[in-house]
Amino acid sequence: IPGTDTDEFYSTLKLGAFGAEVAAVSCYFESSWQELAPDLELKSAAFLMRHVGFCLISLVRSKEAQGCMETAFGYYIKLNSWKDAAIVAGHLSYLHLVFGDLARAREYASQGVELADRAGDVRWQVSRRATLADVLHKMGALEDAEMLFREAEAMQQEKSPDSPLLFYTPGFKYYDLLLSLGKYQEVQNRAVKTI
Question: 11 with 21: CB under 8 angstroms?
Answer without folding.
Answer: yes
